[in-house]
């Protein structure tokens, strides 16, 4: 993904004044319980031990998939590479390490890993977030995705979801998208060799594209993705500082 601009993404809508809060007890002000993560065993090592190169999220996720395949701890078919983009390639995400405060980072695309767990909730693996790693799906949705309804239409997000086994077989990148017009790297590339297949040395655009007629996997709007894989909980607490 390219080096992102930063800043607020306006909804273009006037925000109504908040109604006065009714008097309530201290017990009523208590936050809802946070979902427990103790029962879930992470599929990959702690974040610092994972293969990671800034601004090469597609390769970071490929490496996570490759690690999961090698360990046989979970069935590989439970995992999906998730590309986030749109037709304009302008997608805001919150709680990113390259962000500042509560302002979003606007990427041209981003890639995360989804674990469709056999447990009570699904999990997101994002090496670029300040949220927990892994992060419960609903927490990531509330904190990092937020709502398309609050954004201008040109910032609405779409999802391309590709099974991890298929991603490992088909993805290829020569990293040329990270070079400027003079052939210089915008960000240093990974130190390991480029990922390629017998059929391709570079097909990244086919994964970033949100045209369902090209590439691999399934494409749908972000709200459909959240509805399908979230638990539809109503909590919206902050994980600031965790």
TrEMBL record:
Region (Disordered): 1-21
UniProtKB keywords: Hydrolase
Known function: Mediates the side-chain deamidation of N-terminal glutamine residues to glutamate, an important step in N-end rule pathway of protein degradation. Conversion of the resulting N-terminal glutamine to glutamate renders the protein susceptible to arginylation, polyubiquitination and degradation as specified by the N-end rule. Does not act on substrates with internal or C-terminal glutamine and does not act on non-glutamine residues in any position. Does not deaminate acetylated N-terminal glutamine.
One Gene Ontology term, aspect cellular component: nucleus
Top class in the EC scheme: hydrolase
Family statement drawn from the similarity comment of this UniProt entry: Belongs to the NTAQ1 family.
Pfam families for the chain: Nt_Gln_amidase
Catalytic activity: N-terminal L-glutaminyl-[protein] + H2O = N-terminal L-glutamyl-[protein] + NH4(+)
Protein's recorded name: Protein N-terminal glutamine amidohydrolase
Comp. bias intervals (Low complexity): 10-21
EC number(s) given by UniProt: 3.5.1.122
InterPro entries, A to Z: N_Gln_amidohydro_ab_roll_sf, NTAQ1, Prot_N_Gln_amidohydro_ab_roll
GO molecular function: protein-N-terminal asparagine amidohydrolase activity; protein-N-terminal glutamine amidohydrolase activity
Assembly and binders: Monomer.
Domain of life, source organism: Eukaryota
This protein's record includes keyword Hydrolase: yes
Domain Protein N-terminal glutamine amidohydrolase alpha beta roll, first and last residues per copy: 52-229
């Amino acid at each position: 993904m390219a080096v992102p601009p930063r800043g607020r993404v306006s909804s273009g809508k006037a925000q109504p004044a908040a109604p006065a809060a009714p008097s309530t007890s201290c017990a009523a002000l208590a936050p809802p319980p946070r979902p427990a993560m103790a029962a879930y065993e992470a599929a990959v090592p702690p974040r610092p031990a994972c293969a990671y190169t800034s601004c090469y999220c597609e390769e970071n996720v490929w490496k996570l998939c490759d690690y999961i395949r090698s360990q046989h701890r979970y069935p590989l078919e439970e995992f999906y590479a998730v590309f986030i983009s749109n037709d304009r390639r302008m997608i805001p995400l919150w709680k990113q390490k390259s962000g500042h405060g509560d302002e979003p980072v606007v990427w041209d695309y981003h890639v995360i890993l989804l674990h469709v767990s056999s447990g009570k909730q699904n999990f997101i693996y994002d090496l670029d977030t300040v949220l927990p790693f892994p992060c419960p799906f609903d927490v990531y949705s509330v904190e990092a995705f937020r709502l398309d309804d609050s954004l201008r239409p040109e910032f609405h997000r779409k999802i391309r979801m590709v099974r991890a086994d298929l991603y490992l077989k088909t993805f290829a990148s020569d990293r040329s998208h990270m070079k400027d017009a003079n052939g210089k790297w915008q960000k240093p590339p990974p130190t390991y060799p480029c990922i390629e297949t017998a059929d391709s040395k570079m097909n990244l655009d086919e994964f970033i594209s949100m045209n369902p007629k090209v590439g691999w996997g399934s494409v749908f709007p972000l709200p459909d993705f959240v509805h399908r894989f979230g638990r539809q909980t109503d909590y919206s607490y902050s994980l600031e500082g965790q």
